Amino acid sequence: MILFLSKMDYRAELKNPASIGYIDIIVAEAMKDADSFSTIFELSFDADKSIAWKAAWVCNKICRINPEVITPERRNRITNEVIQTKHNGVLRSMLSILVDGGLPAQIPVEFINLCFERMVSPKGDVSHQVLSMKLLYQICLAEPAFAPELTAYLENISPADYTPGFNTTRKKILKLLYSRHIA
């Protein structure tokens, strides 16, 4: 088992082939102190997208356990990375972190537009579609003016063009929109 990893060691460890068990060891180490988490968080923006992807995966797992680690400043950085990244693994983990850790106080219009685009892209990764849909719902809770637009998108999507997972989430989100009377 890994006993202590410095910043360089985390980088070196993230270069290794990833498995759930191996990532869980890094998660356990990174949760021991704030500096370790900060190191891993910074590595999730690494130019080496293989390292960034694994670091974002670690951050995602930590956020599910302790969402408070995602500070407002970190939310802003993640939101900006979601807008810019082309790497599917980094994108999936960062979208998931925002679902669990919350959205920034000021949500860029470009982020909202990208969430709509990713949600309705029938050839897109289903995880990106579903996570984008969940984030758009969270935006509707904060900004009810977006609810009619999200509702219209979800009501007019042809279920045959999407996966069962997408359609299940779509129905749940519509039900939530209707029940909260924000649609």
How would you describe what is shown here?
The protein is mostly helical and 183 residues long. The protein has helices spanning 7-15, 20-30, 34-43, 49-65, 72-84, 88-101, 109-120, 126-142, 147-156, 164-179. The protein is globular. The chain starts with 6 loop residues before the first helix and ends with a helix. The relative contact order is 0.08.
Output the helix-strand order: HHHHHHHHHH
Write down how many β-strands occur, each being a DSSP E stretch of 2 or more residues: 0
Derived from helix and strand composition plus strand pairing, the structural class reads mainly alpha
Helix content: over 70%
Shape designation: globular
User: What's the total helix number?
Assistant: 10
Please state the CA-atom Rg, rounded to the nearest Å.
17 Å
The amount of beta strand, in percent, is under 5%
Largest sheet: none
What is the overall pLDDT average?
Answer: 91
